[in-house]
Amino acid sequence: MRRLPLFPLPVVLFPGAVAPLHIFEPRYRQMVARCIEFDRRFGLLYHDPDRMGPFEMEEGRVGTIAEIGEFRILPDGRSLLLAHGRERFRINDGIESPERYYEGLVEPFEDGSPGDPEELIRRRMRSLDLLVSVLEKLPDLEGREDVPALEIDPADETSFQIAQRIRVDPAWQHALLEITDETRRLERIDSLLSDALS
C-alpha cells in the first residue's frame, strides 16, 4: 500500500497509454510540483462531475498511476505535461491531509491468473484482426499500410492497447479498466468493434 496524490478528471488513462494534460488549478499545480520533486507519479481517477456530482474519496475506486514525462511550465504558472499510464490501483482509504489536492492510500489492482498463455495469444490475435478490419473501413486510412494495430505484440497485454485506440465514452472505458480478466476485456472490445462493422 502506498500514499498517492489523486487527480480526478473526466478522462480514462489506460496502462501503457499517454495523455497530454493542461494543469491550471492552483491545487493541481501544487500537486504536480510535489510529484516532480518526489517520484513524478500521481493517480488519475475517472470522474465526470456533470454525471457524478462532486468528487468523493470512495474506497474501492479504480484508477491508473500516471508518471509525468515531458513537462513544461508556462509563463503564467500553468503547465503542460505528458502523463504515461503505468499500473492500475484501487483506493483503500482517503487521507486527511493539509495539502489542497486529494491524497489516498492505494493498493495494486491486478488481473487474476490469465490461464493458458497460448490460448490468450490466439484470443488477442482475433481482437487485433477485428481492429484492423474496423480501421480499414475508415476513409482517412484508405491506402495506408501502417495500420496501428499491427504495432501491437499479442505476446503482451493487448486489451488496453486496443482500447486506447478507440474513441468511445469515458464511462465505457472506465468500466473496462475495472475488469480484472483480459479475456473479458477483449470480449467487450470485440462487441464494440463488431457493432462498428455492422
Name of the top-level CATH class of the largest domain: Mainly Beta
Strand count, sense and barrel status of the largest sheet are: 5 strands, mixed, barrel
N-to-C span: 45 Å
Radius of gyration: 18 Å
Question: Which structural class do you get from the secondary structure elements?
Answer: alpha+beta
CATH topology group of the largest domain: Archaeosine Trna-guanine Transglycosylase, Chain: A, domain 4
Strand order of the largest sheet: 1-3-4-5-6
Helix and strand succession?
EEHEHEEEHHHH
Name the beta content range.
25-35%
Primary descriptors:
198 residues, alpha+beta, globular, 6 strands, Archaeosine Trna-guanine Transglycosylase, Chain: A, domain 4, 5-stranded mixed barrel
Can you offer a commentary on this structure?
This protein has 6 helices and 6 strands. The protein has 198 residues and is of the alpha+beta class. The protein has a 5-stranded mixed β-barrel. It has helices spanning 26-37, 49-52, 117-137, 159-163, 170-177, 182-197, and strands at residues 2-9, 18-23, 41-46, 62-73, 79-94, 102-108. The protein folds into 2 domains: 2-108, LON domain-like (Archaeosine Trna-guanine Transglycosylase, Chain: A, domain 4, Roll); 117-197, no CATH class. The protein is globular and about 50 Å long.
Quick overview of this protein structure:
Helix content is 33%, strand content 28%. With 198 residues, the protein is α+β, with helices and mostly antiparallel strands. The chain has a five-stranded mixed beta barrel with strand order 1-3-4-5-6.
